[in-house]
Amino acid sequence: MQLNLEDLRAAFGFGVAGNFAGHLEQAGEAGDFTSVDAPAEAPKGIFPWYVPRDNGFLRLFPLSHERIVLPVSKTPLNLQIEPEVAVLGVVTYRRDGTVDRIEPRAIGAFNDCSIRREGATKISQKKNWGEASKGIARQLLRVTEIEPDGAAATLRLASFLVRDGEALPYGVDSAVADYSYFGTQLLDWVVDRLRHQQGADGTPLEDVGQQLLAAGRPAVVVIGIGATRYTALGETTFLAPGDHSVVVVYDGARHDADAVQAAVAAGAEHELPGASTLRQAVFAAA
User: Fold this and answer.
1) Cα 22-166-25 angle, rounded to 5 deg
2) C-alpha torsion 204→81→184→143, nearest 10
3) How far apart are alpha carbons 275 and 139 in whole angstroms?
4) C-alpha R_g of the chain
5) What is the C-alpha to C-alpha distance for residues 208 and 14, in angstroms, rounded to an integer?
6) CB under 8 Å to 197, separation ≥6 — which residues?
7) Pairing mode of beta strands 134-136, 63-64
8) Are 249 and 155 in contact (CB under 8 A)?
9) What confidence tens digit (pLDDT) does each residue in 85-140 have?
10) Which of 45, 59, 63, 134 would give a disulfide with 54, using CB separation of 3.0 to 4.6 Å?
């Protein structure tokens, strides 16, 4: 499925926090969720990163197929790739305006690029600083379901920092089915959070369902379903101008990890059959 970014300007973008074991701890964010009541194995909540009609910074359209533009700052902001699977879904609403269900239409590579910003009170404050602060693959994989033993059963998620001509593994190459919540379980949980999640002081979460309504009940949502664990390099290495960020969702039954890394090193990841790939060049703000 070829994606047209302009079609997503009317969509609603949000993410899932804590949906891959170990990521929050590596990102130094586990302590932010001590007040959130959730089972140990469950995601911690959802957060917005693009809200059409919003009155603040979340109205800025952040998605790009090919660039990350670093924000203006006098101090280091420690930007990291956040390799994720994105789900493109169609929303059905109830008569009262709340969400009834989300039906998946496509999945693919996504970069929920984040600032490790001290003092941020909400997750969204680390997520959208303007144009080209997020990434989504141009080519997505069409699906009608995302069950762990269905269309996504053999899919894997890998990511790389390309620096000085070398493709360096940034996230741990992981089976997509290893997300804590996936398939129907994930989508039902997301719908529940859109209906019931509340925002309050002392929690990094917000009332995302109300933000969805305020955005005019968009028919389409883009969900970043959570970042995988970092490699040792990914945990301690931050983006700089001249780098390339690469996220690949590929079929592990057709390609092995070494072949994917070799393709990324050669700049040929887009030639991998059955893969969704995202390569973003990193630029300093003009």
Assistant:
1) 10
2) 140
3) 8
4) 17
5) 8
6) 45, 46, 205, 206, 207, 208, 209
7) parallel
8) yes
9) 999 999 999 999 899 999 999 999 999 998 877 767 788 888 899 999 999 999 99
10) 59
